[in-house]
Automatic annotation (TrEMBL):
Belongs to the class-II aminoacyl-tRNA synthetase family. CDD domains: GlyRS-like_core. Its EC number is 6.1.1.14. InterPro entries: aa-tRNA-synt_IIb (IPR002314), aa-tRNA-synth_II (IPR006195), aa-tRNA-synth_II/BPL/LPL (IPR045864), Anticodon-bd (IPR004154), Anticodon-bd_dom_sf (IPR036621), Gly-tRNA_synthase/POLG2 (IPR027031), Gly_tRNA_ligase_bac (IPR022961), GlyRS-like_core (IPR033731). Pfam families: HGTP_anticodon (PF03129), tRNA-synt_2b (PF00587). The keyword ATP-binding applies. This is Glycine--tRNA ligase. GO terms for molecular function: ATP binding; bis(5'-nucleosyl)-tetraphosphatase (asymmetrical) activity; glycine-tRNA ligase activity. Catalyzes the attachment of glycine to tRNA(Gly).
Amino acid sequence: MNPALETTQLKDIVAHAKEYGFVFQSSEIYDGLAAVYDYGPNGVELKNNLKRLWWESMTQLHDNVVGIDAAIFMAPQTWEASGHIAGFNDPLIDNLDSKKRYRADVLLEEKAAEYENASDAARGAALTAEMGRLLTANDLAGVRQLILNEKILCPVSKTGNWTEVRQFNLMFSTQGSAVDSDAPPVYLRPETAQGIFVNFLNVQKSARMKVPFGIAQIGKAFRNEIVARQFIFRMREFEQMEMQFFVRPGTEGEWYDTWKAARRKFHEALGLPAAKLRFHDHDKLAHYAKAAVDIEYEFPFGFKEMEGIHSRGDFDLTQHQALSKKKQQYFDADIDPATGKAYGNYVPFVVETSVGADRLFLATLCNAYEEETITEGEGDAQTTKTRTVLRLHPAVAPVKAAIFPLVRKDGMPEKAQEIFNALKFDFRLVLEERDAIGKRYTRQDLIGTPFCIVVDGQTLEDNTVTVRHRDSREQTRMPISELKSYIGEAVSFKRIFEQL
């Protein structure tokens, strides 16, 4: 990673994202809606490319993974079976002086991170472990006392005048019927996984899948986050990319390790540096989990979770089987070498991989953003300046190539349009004629376009163009007839898939 990123502040990323059409505050003309964001013209292209990359890596590269798209609204019993109604809570604490509300676990995690940054990793680990113990035991008084013992102060009031810690359910609810006021509430799903679990047998039978197999899904989820901050890292409306992998009981440990390694490899293949990624094992396991680990990325605000890998056991299917009274079992005809008989009927265990599309977007944007000092000209005319560039992997860049006529005359605009028309079926392009060529290069650097194609006088003579490369700023002369294969090779998902 370029050292320039080390000093990049989140505010730089936020400002760049707005200025260049990546992310806008939702309803900004009405002063916005907290923790809700809209993706702009370049942002939606980058996000869609990341989603498509994930989807194809799951469903095309694995012959035992298929996809679904489940509804956002589900029967209320779904969330009773999953435990969300009873236990989907965050521990909240208020500061009596500032009147500000915080997640108690986040305050303690940030304190632990301070210890780690001060080279006192043992103390940070001990604090995290104690927090996990207290939360697992639902000892909220103990959590408050831990905050007091650590002398954690409110960032606004700078005081430690804290209330008691209490649990707050994060699910949004709405009326389930337009005509029946007594109808039970319907919830906006807080996760996408349950849509997969309730469709387990539908998918297994219709797609003729054999254990082990996976079901992938990309979809929106909603959480009534009280403390939502750090730009799009934590939002109330967000998108998840999940794959639930159903395995034979007793093999879940092996598959957990397999997917743990595979998912980290995916992020590295996308271009996230190994030094900016780490595994973080959970100290407090969810009620359903046998093992859990996060893949964390080092954002400008520190290492934070980007993806979770969980060994969920048979909790979900068993719970739905018990409440629905419908069997969620799979008949395994393979022979168990220990008994010499078929494995028979069982409820499969599950290994989950779940990555936040918005968090992957933010990590990709942070990693790509760079301010570098470049030198232009030669001899006495040599100058230096700062260039801001997004070094996005060409496969996920919003725009693959920009086409520029050198001047707006002599048939160059018409030739540029001809090239645009020939390539637009294969790539997302822009055609721009305004301003000096240097300014046009700069605009494309700012949105991460890997190639700029310049039509000049020589083009009209021999059908060759100059291709300028974003990262090196080097220029290559080539025939127009080679552009499709040249760009296609660089921007193909194959460049990422071949590393997996």
